[in-house]
């Protein structure tokens, strides 16, 4: 779904006669690249942009918009994300996944449910485990350009849910023993330790 979303963004821009702020010919083509895990192009093809737009219009006819479908699928995939990091055998990997990797990419009425952390929040979260949050990761986007970032730069928070603070939906909270008393005073739900 990410590829369909990216293609929709590109064709919408080309429909306006520009791409990344530069004018383009109405007869231009889109280069479609498939890359391996290292970003190396393993398959490439070209298609007239109008043909790609027409195919996207066909696929989206009487269907939910790609953005909506993408958000739903990303949310569902987040629900099934593994909680145990057996591959890397990372200390506290289970806790990190359960606490920080809940759901992302969801929208309500076109507004994102989660937002990036403020600088103050980043600093607070980073203190939990600097080696985890400052680790550099790299992904490749539609244009095959690598995006490198640290986990803390992409961390998000859900501030409101259904017009109320997200904490109203909490049933219980699990915390390390060292913060049990502070957490018990902060939240109005049962707080327990690991």
Helix content: 25-40%
Strands across the major sheet, in which order? 1-2
Radius of gyration: 21 Å
> What's the helix count?
8
Shape: elongated
Q: Largest sheet, described in full? A: 2 strands, antiparallel
Catalogue the unreliable spans: none
N-to-C order of helices and strands: HEEEEHHHEEEHHEEHEEEEHE
Structural class: alpha+beta
Report the strand count: 14
Q: What fraction of the residues are assigned to beta strands by DSSP?
A: 15-25%
Mean pLDDT: 79
Distance between the termini: 37 Å
As for the number of domains, it is 4
What do you see in this structure?
By secondary structure, the chain is an alpha+beta fold. The chain folds into 4 domains: 2-63, no CATH class; 66-113; 116-158, no CATH class; 165-194, no CATH class. The protein has helices spanning 2-15, 49-60, 66-79, 93-100, 119-128, 130-133, 151-154, 180-186; strands at residues 18-19, 22-23, 29-35, 41-48, 107-108, 111-112, 115-116, 136-140, 146-150, 156-157, 160-161, 164-165, 173-175, 191-193. It has a two-stranded antiparallel sheet with strand order 1-2. The protein has a two-stranded antiparallel ribbon with strand order 3-4. A two-stranded antiparallel sheet has the order 5-6. α1 (2-15) crosses α2 (49-60). The longest helix has 14 residues, at 2-15. The mean pLDDT is 79.
């Amino acid at each position: 779904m990410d590829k369909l979303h990216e293609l929709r963004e590109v064709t919408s821009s080309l429909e306006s006669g520009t791409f990344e702020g530069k004018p383009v010919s109405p007869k231009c083509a889109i280069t479609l690249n498939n890359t391996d895990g290292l970003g190396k192009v393993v398959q490439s093809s070209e298609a007239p942009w109008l043909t790609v737009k027409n195919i996207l219009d066909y696929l989206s006819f009487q269907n939910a918009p790609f953005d909506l479908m993408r958000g739903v699928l990303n949310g569902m995939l987040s629900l099934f994300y593994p909680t145990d990091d057996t591959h890397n055998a990372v200390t506290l990997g289970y806790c990190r996944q359960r606490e920080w990797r809940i759901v992302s990419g969801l929208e309500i009425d076109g507004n994102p449910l989660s937002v990036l952390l403020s600088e103050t929040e980043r600093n607070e979260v980073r203190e939990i485990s600097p080696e985890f949050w400052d680790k550099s990761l790299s992904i490749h986007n539609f244009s095959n350009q690598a995006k490198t970032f640290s986990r803390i730069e992409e961390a998000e928070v859900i501030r409101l849910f259904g017009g109320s603070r997200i904490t109203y939906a909490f049933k219980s909270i699990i915390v390390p023993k060292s913060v049990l008393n502070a957490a018990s005073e902060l939240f109005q739900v049962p707080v327990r330790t690991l």
